[in-house]
# Entry
Amino acid sequence: MTDPLRCLAWGSDASFYRLVPQLVIVVENESEVQRVLALCAELSAPLTFRAAGTSLSGQALSDSVLVLLGDDWQRMRVSADAAVIHLQPGVIGSAANRRLAPLGRKIGPDPASIDAAMIGGIAANNASGMCCGTVENSYRTLAGMRVVLTDGAVLDSRDADSRAAFAQTHGALLQGLAELSRQTRDDSSLSQRIRHKYRLKNTTGYGLNALLDFDDPVDILTHLMIGSEGTLGFISEISYHTVPEHPHKASALVLFHDLQAACQAVTLLKPAPVVAVELLDRASLRAVQNKPGMPASLLDLGAEGAALLIETRAETAAALGVKVHAIGAVLAGFELAQPLHFTSDVTESTALWNVRKGIFPAVGAVRPTGTTVIIEDVAFPVERLAEATLELQALFQRFGYPEAIVYGHALEGNLHFVFTQDFGKPEEVQRYSEFMDAVCQMVVQRYDGSLKAEHGTGRNMAPYVELEWGAPAVALMRRIKDLFDPKGLLNPGVILNADPQAHLKNLKPLPSADVLVDKCIECGFCEPKCPSRGLTLSPRQRIVGWREISRREAAGEESQALRAAYDYQGIQTCAACGLCATACPVGIETGLLIKALRGRQAGPLARRVA
# Structure
């Protein structure tokens, strides 16, 4: 694809960046991946691999060559005992879990975007979520993978013959990794730093723990691929050790009078039989308190209140009851804003967790038109969670973000904070820059935390990698990059970026286009539902295209070429079926926009006849 409309449409992911590719290529198999890699090397053309584009840090974008997964990357196989599942990168995360559910298993990674995110992106970003923590993420549950490297070589770590052949042809790469591992182990200061950093969730930079955790260079290679964000190679298949999906579950939304008490409860719940503990501050609760499934008592919660959304699971109903009782004993010492109530009702529990998953888009839906919603992703030591959360909230006030909310995976000390930002004015960009500098300094200098716990480094945090890790670790990361990608063609500017202003460039505009879709934040959750996705445009891309047409016309710029392309790609080929709204966290139905545009195209006679 080279036409301006589709290149524009593929220039957005779920982040607040935009890079419009010059060329978009759909690949359907490994041989096509190898051909693209060879051509890009011949032409010195940078390229980026993209799966679902639900990435939040700008890692699925390119202003050069963007390589998309076609429909022929969706195969999966389950081992006879269901202990391992083999997945191609185009499989959507929840589809893998649907295959495993009758067998009482699931994959470990559980990002909030799992109904849209593809396995290729989940692995490449080491995406985690509400339950998997640091124990069941892609890095910890990896059973092997098949990877295509920059020179087109294919390594299948699950196949002894492939490993042996690769050792013959790429001995220098494997020796290089072995030497990096040896040097890292010999450097006690650096190795101690690496182990210390991974006591928390951490996706900032490359996974240096692979150099310490494994002896075999092939195992080091495959684990470095996890979280590498497409900068080291292409994962064409991955095998996961599956984890139990216990049949009996109970959830509770526990309300506290203040945030400090909620955070103190988290510390006590850490050894309790819980699988997930989500922290929600008062501002985040306010954003969702009118959603179906939320208790009416939320409306009466005080301004300093907070909540913990807790889940526990067990093999039997009796065992579940024991766990619920144990959790209740932990919380008995706290004054709660409403009596503790666990529910095992699937509908009630699902409603609670769906609301939690939809907080980020829900906040985006109430932002002022023309502004961007930003989600950041940090981690602190759990024992300092209350202190760090209050300090974050103080920074919101200091830099003028009173609407900001805080929520996250409290058991891991992993907080997300969401705020709205206008990137249309230089002074607003400067305010954002100063705010992020202050946040990063606070996270690193005061708490030695993670600047990116699970969303990946991307363009967003690349300029701050050295601040978090220090110069020796970053030098090691650069040696890794040079070993895998000596020409620097794979997803340049992501993870490692020498430009200290990189996170302030290529910012995505979200201009007003139509009240029917203005609240869209381009998260991409809608795309798997769309019948025309892949034929022409997805609902997200229809909104992207119409926004740009509207922006150009409002600015008096030429828009006829985009309008002409949009007539077929955006309007004529939309089924207007409303399926996109069933997946949208804020219920946006792109088909309503298309129907409105069709109505405007129709003449007076057609409208009278209708």
Remarks:
- The CA atoms of residues 333 and 509 lie 49 Å apart.
- The first helix runs from residue 4 to 9.
- The mean pLDDT is 95.
